[in-house]
């Protein structure tokens, strides 16, 4: 939600009477519509300034309105416009706990479950002590003055109407100096046509209950033009016209018109234009920085993207804000510095890149952050098997097996021997002896040739016994 404070100068501002029907409010005309002692202007309305009433950095919720104190200043967000509700968020690695705008399944509308940070915003201490009229400091009233009197500093004093040179508008005493027709409005005591008031404007009230146009997000309406925030006024060599930031550099006398920031007698033609030629050798306006004139209208070169962000890049070379103190900007949100956590831990990471302690010699830090006796592997006299700590003392080669920490092998007959009664008979490769056995060399560990050799040996024994 955008506060349209200073969106458009109300020319009746400064006459001592707040006139909402002419677009006057605490934002457009602070002089006539000031806020009370414990209030500040947000969204062109006076709201309670909770920052001066002890609001914590966790914020609070007033219905769908989220209130936060950033750098000592109150920032109010309408969660309904963000598509969510105002509620408590328990925190995560990226965001600290506190009150946020978010979907109902992410934030708790009941507030902080511990009750440490109430969801309700601090109450405003209204006071009418020593007052018979005026504001009570919290948006309420201490009373009204009767006819012919006005409230000054909480007292009702006699008022003298002031209508000299006026055909309309307030007389300063609760009455009026006259009224205008349906298609006109009162401006500085004189009736002005609504159509004339919107000539050369992009935004702001038309004085007749409507608007001359609306600005985009992250823009402000000033002097009828939509311009970004952070503008610096410039009135160098200017007699009149805009200062480029919502103010004016001067007003021409009756019968003269402001052209190219000079007062001349040429009648400019700027209806429906915010920039470009006015027909008198002057200009209908200059576009602010990062804007350009396109068909007599100021168009942004880049649209900053700061919705839902408190800090960081706005996408157009600017910033959405800076974090205070030791807070750092993470994904557009100001996050407080990391707090080490070593509760229940003797050693290991403290969660912020530091350590909770070191273990003594002979101990090691486990996953729970506790020091436990360190296991010492033992392989004395062992060539294979477990080392007692989940490791290994070695592996046996092919054909060998680990038995009680030693690599051993079984007795296997040679592939080219003939065994009879335990005595081997060597057989030549060609012309083998009748009843003898032979086998092709086998790969160590291959069992199929050994089984075949065993069957053959049984047959040989039967032949020799016959």
Mean pLDDT: 77
The unreliable regions are 1-9, 411-436, 438-446, 458-466
Main pleated sheet: 3 strands, antiparallel
Q: Tell me roughly what share of residues is in helical segments.
A: under 10%
Radius of gyration: 45 Å
**Termini Cα gap:** 112 Å
* Content of β-strand: 15-25%
How would you spell out the order of helices and strands? Answer: EEEEEEEEEEEHEEEEEEEEEEEEEEH
Q: How many H/I helical runs?
A: 2
Strand order of the largest sheet: 3-4-5
**Which descriptor suits the 3D outline?**
elongated
Total count of strands: 25
Secondary-structure content class: mainly beta
Describe the structure.
- The protein is mainly beta and 466 residues long.
- Among the domains are: 361-410, no CATH class; 417-465, no CATH class.
- It is 5% helix and 20% strand.
- It has helices spanning 194-197, 448-465, and strands at 39-42, 45-48, 60-62, 65-70, 73-78, 85-89, 98-102, 149-152, 155-158, 184-187, 190-193, 220-222, 225-227, 257-259, 262-264, 291-294, 297-300, 328-330, 333-335, 363-365, 371-373, 401-403, 406-408, 417-420, 423-426.
- It is elongated and about 120 Å long.
- The relative contact order is 0.06.
Task: Draw up the topology in text.
Elements: E1 39-42, E2 45-48, E3 60-62, E4 65-70, E5 73-78, E6 85-89, E7 98-102, E8 149-152, E9 155-158, E10 184-187, E11 190-193, H1 194-197, E12 220-222, E13 225-227, E14 257-259, E15 262-264, E16 291-294, E17 297-300, E18 328-330, E19 333-335, E20 363-365, E21 371-373, E22 401-403, E23 406-408, E24 417-420, E25 423-426, H2 448-465
Antiparallel strand pairs: 1-2, 3-4, 4-5, 6-7, 8-9, 10-11, 12-13, 14-15, 16-17, 18-19, 20-21, 22-23, 24-25
